[in-house]
Structure formats: C-alpha cells, structure tokens
Amino acid sequence: MKGVFGAALIVVCGLSPGQVVAAGNAENGKAHYTICLACHGANGEGNPAIHSPTIGGQETWYVERQLQNFKSGVRGTHPKDMYGAQMRPMSMTLTSDQIVADVAAYVNTLRPAPPKPSISGDAAAAEASYALCAPCHGARGEGNIAFNAPRLIGQHDWYVVQQLVNFRDGLRGTKLEDTFGMQMRPMAMTLMNDEAVRNMAAFIASLK
Ligand code: HEC
Ligand code: HEC
Are 133 and 39 in contact (CB under 8 A)? Predict the structure, then answer.
C-alpha cells in the first residue's frame, strides 16, 4: 500500500518518473509483465524453444539493469546477437524508469521450477575453474550485489552456454557504456574452448 501511495504522490507533485524513481513496486509491475508472459512464462521460467531465459527470482537490481541495457542498446544491438535483438523491442515497451523498476521487482517475486538439464558437459571437470567465478557470483552461484554479479542458479544450462559464448566472442560486454559486462568478458575468455564452456554450464547447473 505504501508503494501505491508513493507512486500517487509523485503524480500529485507533478514529478516525471525520469526525475524520481521510487524503489520498484511489484504490484504495479504485474500489469506490465503481461507482454513478457508469451516468452518468459507465468513464473518467469523461460522457454528453450524460443531461447528465452529464466528470469523469475533473479535479483531486482540485475533485471532492472539488463532491461535498461536492452533499452539503451548496450545489450542486444550486436549484429550477430539475434536473441538479444528479439528481447530489445520488448524492453522498449517499458516506457519509464519507474515501470522498469516495477517490472523488475515483480520478476523477482516469481518462483519458477528448476530447469531441466539439456546439455552434456562434465561438471566435475569445471569444478576447479569455478574458483575464479566464485568470488563474484558466490560459491553456490547465488550472486553478489557488491560485485554486480547476478544469480546463476536456476538458470537454463543452454542459456549459460549462450551468454558465456556471447561474452567470449564479444556479442556482449564490449560496449564502452557496459561497465559490468566488460568485467565479465575476460572471465568468459578464460574458458579455453566450447567444451570448457559446456562443462562450466553443467557445473553451474549442479549448484543448489
Ligand atoms: C519475444 C520473446 C520475448 C519477450 C516477449 C520478452 N523477452 Fe525477455 N528475453 C527474450 C530472449 C530471447 C532473451 C535472451 C537474450 C539473449 O540471449 O541475450 C531475453 C532476455 C531477458 C532478460 C535478461 C536475462 C538475463 O539473465 O540477463 C531479461 C531481464 C528479460 N528478458 C526480461 C523481460 C521482460 C521484463 C519482458 C517483458 C517486458 C520480456 N523480457 C519480454 C525474449 C523475450
Ligand atoms: C569480477 C567479477 C566476476 C567474475 C570473476 C565472474 N563474473 Fe560472471 N558476471 C559478472 C558480472 C558483473 C556480470 C553481469 C554483466 C552485466 O551486467 O551484463 C556477470 C554475468 C555472468 C553471466 C550472465 C548471466 C545472465 O543471466 O545473463 C554468466 C553466465 C556468468 N557471469 C558466468 C561466470 C562464470 C562461469 C565465471 C567464471 C569463469 C564468471 N562469471 C566470473 C562478474 C563476474
């Protein structure tokens, strides 16, 4: 209720949402999620058939940042990034910073079922290399806001592969404005080949 009041106050005071962005209000975000349903599903579980990832339960700050990245073209504009290009126009339906914050808050409340493994990789072979990832993403892949690193658990293994390849090959994390993607890119480049990428995704999928 407090959030609804806050939003009403901003309107009454005549401040545009671009000037004052209150913390996201999940209740208000729900209505704007309708357009996301078709691809990400009612619980934010994603859909392998159309390459859309799990977003349900992801940290609000990360979802908010990615939506802004898609909107501004920091993500989803590389000529080879065909899946990012599908997401970008969707982000543009969220017409204010407040709406982005609200949808991100709503996405955080969703609780998808764990995804089914879809790739073959040797999780044990990647366990030692995950030591490099753990300081930022957490020992259990739970994410860490202090390092701006998102939650990895609960994500589809094929999407983890796709993003590691995107970072490695420069489809993501190369724009000057992409401060956080640029921190991740050299990490993806430590995975020597596609097999190492698959092994890492299998190891992440094994984290609870
Ligand atoms: C037409 C299908 C489609 C619709 C509709 C759609 N998305 Fe997406 N979304 C995708 C795809 C595909 C990706 C993966 C992009 C990539 O591979 O980089 C994605 C990625 C994302 C990501 C990044 C996840 C991550 O882990 O980095 C977020 C956040 C997201 N979508 C939120 C939303 C929200 C919120 C909406 C509704 C406003 C929405 N999407 C609507 C297809 C869609
Ligand atoms: C220095 C901190 C840091 C380290 C170490 C690190 N990452 Fe990241 N990682 C990040 C940040 C920050 C992002 C978010 C980038 C963005 O905002 O687009 C990220 C994003 C990702 C994503 C994309 C998630 C999504 O939902 O799209 C994956 C997958 C990932 N990292 C895996 C790894 C793996 C595997 C390793 C170890 C080889 C690793 N990271 C090491 C900071 C780090």
Answer: no
